[in-house]
Design goal:
By secondary structure, the protein is mainly alpha-helical. It contains 8 helices and no strands.
């Protein structure tokens, strides 16, 4: 019937043979590897922050410099990705989609750096217990995202990733609300302000990674 011609045409335009031909180009996977490496920087940043949370105050400056080294590496990867997108003939997805994913990963890194800076400048000895809970959530998000970026060539396999990122973001929101309520009951006004500043930065990191997952979801729908 005429109504079915459109979808059939679209499916025929993406035959398995044509897909395999496209994947013979080395440029196709280069952007995905760069995105995966960029996501890996968030995993490394979480590891450094975990060390910072447990370290004495006199160690914070040294550990923060490690965090800044990771941040510089993330910036280099973003620059490399931009060059790749500008110069490659074949990309696995539209350039705009890949750039959006890069910006989301860059935002997550920026918020994680903010957590370290808040710890350093406020001379915090031991963050609230909820900080470790949030860091665990962000770590899980980042680990999942590393695999998802490498798997962008097989979008049908990423629906579970999309849903899991939403679930983790809800956990982060819940933990943030508990953190705020506990801090209000237990802390002085100045200590509360410092604690909530860190809480917001960690929540922002979780939300930035959730946005990466949401972008993957939009790509899945658009490319289906």
């Amino acid at each position: 019937m005429p109504a079915a011609a459109g979808p059939v045409t679209r499916r025929m335009a993406r035959t398995p043979g044509e897909t395999m031909k496209l994947r013979l180009f080395p440029q196709e996977t280069a952007a995905l590897e760069l995105l995966a490496d960029l996501a890996q920087q968030s995993v490394l940043a979480v590891q450094v922050l975990s060390e910072m949370f447990g370290a004495p105050r006199e160690e914070h400056e040294r550990i923060f410099e490690e965090l800044m080294h990771i941040d510089r590496r993330a910036t280099e990867l973003q620059r490399s990705l931009l060059t790749q997108l500008r110069t490659s003939f074949v990309n696995p997805l539209p350039r705009e989609d890949l750039l959006d994913l890069s910006e989301g990963l860059g935002a997550a890194m920026e918020h994680l750096v903010a957590v370290g800076e808040i710890t350093l400048v406020n001379r915090l000895d031991r963050p609230a217990r909820e900080a470790s809970d949030q860091l665990e959530i962000v770590n899980r998000q980042a680990e999942l995202t590393v695999g998802a970026m490498r798997g962008l060539g097989q979008l049908d396999d990423l629906e579970d990733y999309w849903i899991e990122m939403i679930r983790l973001a809800k956990r982060a929101n819940h933990t943030h609300r508990l953190w705020g309520a506990n801090a209000m009951r237990e802390l002085s006004l100045s200590a509360y302000a410092r604690s909530i500043e860190m809480a917001r930065a960690l929540l922002d990191a979780a939300h930035a990674l959730k946005d990466v997952g949401a972008n993957v979801g939009r790509i899945i729908v658009k490319e289906s």
